[in-house]
Amino acid sequence: MKKAIFLQSLILTSLIVPQAAFAQQVTTGGVSQIQTFIQSVIQVLITLAGLVSVGFFVWGGFGYITSSGNPEALDRSKKTILYSAIGLAIVLGAFVLSNVVTQLATTAFGGSH
């Protein structure tokens, strides 16, 4: 019994005593690191969205070719191609807009680029 109480007291004491945290200090540009991270995320998302859009282009083209005169399938394929073109235009617009905003922010706040 005494052993269990001693062990519980030891564990409780070790939890109460503060432990030193040796954190590394960042010495170079926090803003430029955030900017680089955000640019990387945007580039990955734009690449994925572009790939999805191209995939739907191919899907719509394949459906258009294999519609065999079926007006319903032909119309569905045309809509798929149209919507994928609109999606690709939005993705390219977002890419251009993000580059413009990045250049404006770099000019306004200064940066390493």
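[next item in queue]
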Amino acid sequence: MVGSVMDNIRNMIATVDSIVKKLDPKVIVQRSFYDDVSGRLFVSLVKGRREYEVMLSGSSFGNGDLTKVEQSMKAGVDRVQHQPIG
């Protein structure tokens, strides 16, 4: 059971990485952290010296329809470009 949960988390992270690379190859997924208590995946996007945090619900990955995940990541990639440098 634990292995299955870890596989699901790895799949979520790989999905996010893939989506970000398609949207903007210059944006890096610096860190991904899944919080078991809240059921959310926290993702740090970095482009140059700009950073932006995105939070995704784990349930967004469950039904096979990644539209919500793609929309959230597109918004995150767009926002990272407008973040103050620091």
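[queue empty]
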